[in-house]
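Problem 3 from the worked examples.
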Amino acid sequence: MANETESLNFIEHIIEDDLSSTHSKDKLRFRFPPEPNGYLHIGHASAICLNFGLGKKYNAPVNLRFDDTNPAKEEQEFVDAIKRDVEWLGFEWDTECYASDYFQQLYDWAVQLIKEGKAYVDSQTSEAMAQQKGTPTTTGTASPFRDRPIEENLSLLEKMKNGESEAGEHVLRAKIDMSSPNMLMRDPVMYRTLHKHHHRTGTDWKIFPMYDWTHGESDYIEQVSHSFCTLEFQPHRELYDWFLDQVYDSDKLRPKQREFARRNLSHTVVSKRKLARLVEEGVVNGWDDPRMPTISGLKRRGYTPESIRNFVESIGVGKRDNLIDVSHLEFNVREDLNKIAPRVMAVLDPVKLVITNYPEGETEWLDAENNQEDEAAGFRKVPFSRELYIEREDFKEEANRKYFRLTIDKEVRLKNAYIIKGESVVKDSEGNITEIHCTYDLDSKSGSGSEASLRKVKGTLHWVSIKEALEIEVRIYDRLFSDPSPDTHKDKDFMEFINQDSLQVITGYAEPSLQEAKPEDKFQFQRLGYFVVDKDSGPDKIVFNRTVALRDSWAKLN
């Protein structure tokens, strides 16, 4: 039992109440039940952390169950991606299960329901069935096939199973209550015919169970004690329990469904259907595009498992759906990367800096700290020479007193190096600055211990030696949508809010230590942000994705 002084969320209170009344701790079992019709997204991360977190808290097994009952949309690719994502987040499942493992048992139970007069084959069109179901304020009317003889129902179901009926010709419906105030209880469909190849059962089955029929019975077969779903499944709970009533054996544990709120993320969408549309219409480059809210996309963007788990923990478990600002997710990855990411220097909008009094042809190797947050990270060597790149925005020919970067007749420090003073500029025919000329103070070298090196200046700039600079491709990612909640506008398609500037590809220059960087290696480009090596990198080109800027630039704009 949990310590009484421990703060529990409402889900944990449910479990604690059950442990004090109906359940024993050794019978607890949880599950994460994704449908393999797309990649997992940040919303799934909440469900993953909830269920696997409960498993860890109560030392109980957690099943990974694939609800693979719709072969028209499900693929092995999605199964593999889901398993990778759950493992990457740091969780291990007890048993890998598939709803398709239970197709025969589900079918046998359906036959049993027909024999008991609790299910029938309906041959109406889907439009006719929808019409006779009624509305929330009017009762439904019975199907003309509701009282079909049991033997005829069994014969038709067998023909459906054998593929002797066309898709949509018949469905199997539970016989419950056409006047129920819960529309889901008005003779719900249990089976439909689909002549599709299934990723695991091939063409063995021609009929496939619906979600509501499959879900609770799968929980029961696996002896899952608590089945946690998002709030949209709350109306389904009555049907979940009705289906369980038909097969429940009192000698076995009975699963309990309870619901928690979704945590939606701003400036994105988390509907698999809408995410699939972004992929299919080429708005993004696949399910793992770094702009996608998929776990694979976040991983490729440079997010860490720790940052996502911390984010999920910080927003908690609630009873009301709400919109979480994406800046909160970004805060968590900044916090984590600040601790672990090595600091390096890269210039993304370069302008040439010439130190006129530095010896021509000479290269000096200076010590640079890898991470001031980690004493064990040590130092690396960076080359310094007469000609450097600095950021174009770090120089102004004329500036006011509040500008603490380089300008004419003003001193700044070059990070890990010397103090320099702006002297003059070279411009092209259009008046653009092509070179900045400056002088350096030989005695101001960082860490030299000399009095001059201790001299304070207000500005410090990062830089890269041109001669040894490594050319890199840098992908600057921004929020995929310009609107905080793009799919809540009734009169507009969510695609209308696509941020056309969500990706900018530029050429930058980095210190040569990055030559050996490998995909998924993460760095802080000093003064610029956090970046990760992309899988598109090769021997001739290193590609970096920006994970997040050092500060929330959107906060200034909104």
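Problem 4, a separate protein:
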Amino acid sequence: MYVYLNECGIVCALGASRDEVRDNLFAGRAGVQPSTDCSPGRALPLGQVRAALSSVDHLPAAQRSRNNALALAALAQIRPAVDAAVARYGAHRVGVILGTSTSGIAETEKAVLHKAAHGTLDEAFHYGQQEMGSPAAMLAEQLGISGPAYVHSSACSSSAKAMASAARLIRMGLCDAVLTGGADSLCAFTVAGFSALESVSAERCNPMSANRHGINIGEGAALFLMTREPAAVALLGWGESSDGHHMSAPDPTGAGARLALTDALRRAGLAPADIDYINMHGTATPQNDAMESRVIAELFGCEVPVSSTKPLTGHTLGAAAAIEAALCWLALQPENSRGHLPPHLWDGQPDPALPALNLVPPGATLGRPLRHVASTSFAFGGSNAALVLGHAPLPPIAELLPHSGKMVLLDSVVSAGDDDLCAQVAIRPDSMFCDGAAVGSWVGIEYMAQAIAAHAGWLARRRGDAVKVGFLLGSRKYEAAVPAFAVGAVLHVHAHRALQGDNGLGAFECRIEVEGRTVATATVTVYQPDNVNEFLQGGTAV
């Protein structure tokens, strides 16, 4: 059974909305900026959330923290879907499993400073603000959820472990839906602690560089609605290990990291060659980068695209795994048809002691949709976690179409979502309408029509309904930039539902791509009555 990441809300240094984060991510615009907010008298690069957060004054005093404000900001982006899940499954069948490492420590700092200045703690302070379980308890109360609600706190692997726990709850049948992810907020305590370990860089962090000097601390939250309901992205696998090598340093052999990755691949049923991209833990500390790069090179080789997104977001500690999973989730969405990849920002000076990994430059694409990605998190005390996200296997194209035999023109479905489908077809000498050398570009409209029909069939199967017949009413402005599709070409046929009426009428924006280049476009109008037999017999479709 697969578990799916149906919705995602994210707030971090890259932005306070999903669209803003996506745009800044793929443009390679770093959110890490110098600040003295957590280190008075010493400017340090921080991954701060600069957008104004909603007030938490409506919460009980024990829950009024910036950490919880970040969690609420991520929740607001997906609140309707979460509320719908609670209504559908029942409050007792929905859980809240999160990761954090700071909780409300920032509020404790302010209270202590107030006491030093005035002799008493700030009246707004409540000891409960720093409880690790606060964000899960707060979200459960705000949503009226009575299922399992708890927090993982294992430093940088916290929210990866939370997502693995959420998946287990669903697969064991204890929950039908789980709100999962992580939240962490900046505070002077954290910055001072990592500074004492000589792990904080005075410049923007520089992972995999010969000039790397350590991390930049960040903050943020990412929340997912996880269910069994099929969606564009599934949590295919996860792996966890604990090597206990050292309180703060990773095992230089990478044994625990390797175990977490291989276990995630095994659970996903994938081989290393199936992974299109790896989001590295990539802290820019000398020891982590040395260990991680060797493990990746040994398991995956040096060709797979990899990047650390911490120069973009900062190291968000307990929320890091969830935020980085959210960046992967964005890259896996159907609209990322060219496979834009999260870039690796650094000074371009490789460390000759490290394997020469394929670090993603800004603007790089696969030229096709991503299928499967991995994300790693390696924490203090040897707490390791790896996640594999991707597209769950889709049904054969023939099971999605009301056609049969040779009338099925497409080979397979690459990805599918609520409003999008991407299908693939390879032009062969025996392809229908092929003259032995090519298929006329006019056939492209037929490929588009079948992609639209496959989308309707995919939605029907997801609902548990039978695949129904629909009608292609017409197309506007079918334009092809090539006269024919040559034998050997692999076409990606995209259908995006731009309009859907209650009466069964719909409109799709379609395009065909070859090697990432659009070669044909059209707007296609379709009609799918509820009762096709009555419609064909001249009656009124219900």
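Solution to problem 4. Residues 444-463 form the longest helix (20 residues). The chain is about 30% helix and 25% strand.
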